[in-house]
Design a protein that fits this description.
Number of helices: 6
Strand content: 15-25%
Structural class: alpha/beta
Largest sheet: 5 strands, parallel
Radius of gyration: 13 Å
């Protein structure tokens, strides 16, 4: 096992729906991830910057600052631009998905169409690419 693999697998989960957040967090903890939950858009960037997670799960519709704005800020900042971001949102139009990808997200999953296992699989796939 090299240094990278031993590194703590940390996820910042930016999600204002507490039920969704707790279901996802419980599942990801079982998968061996350390979860840092953020419910407000305004705190998301600072927490991500401070934690330097392996990946960010980002909702788009958030109180305060929206997910697209957070994503844009993450990708413009030197300390956070290389952190992969997986968007997890109920917004699922082609335009919104394209906007997320254009802003630098690794992928975009629509919550209503995604099972927890699928989300976990996508996270593993993104992390394995790095």
């Amino acid at each position: 096992m090299d240094k990278e693999e031993k590194k703590e697998r940390k996820i910042v989960l930016v999600e204002d729906d507490s039920l969704m957040s707790s279901i996802l967090a419980a599942h990801l903890i079982k998968e061996g991830f350390n979860i840092i939950s953020v419910t407000e858009g305004a705190q998301a960037f600072e927490r991500i910057q401070a934690e330097q997670p392996s990946i960010v799960l980002l909702d788009i519709v958030l109180p305060g600052i929206g997910g697209f704005d957070i994503l844009a800020k993450l990708k413009q900042d030197e300390s956070t631009k290389s952190i992969p971001v997986l968007i997890l949102s109920n917004l699922g139009s082609k335009e919104e998905i394209q906007r997320g990808i254009d802003l630098g997200a690794e992928d975009y999953l629509v919550k209503a169409n995604s099972m927890v296992e699928e989300i976990t699989g996508k996270i593993q796939k993104i992390l394995n690419k790095r």
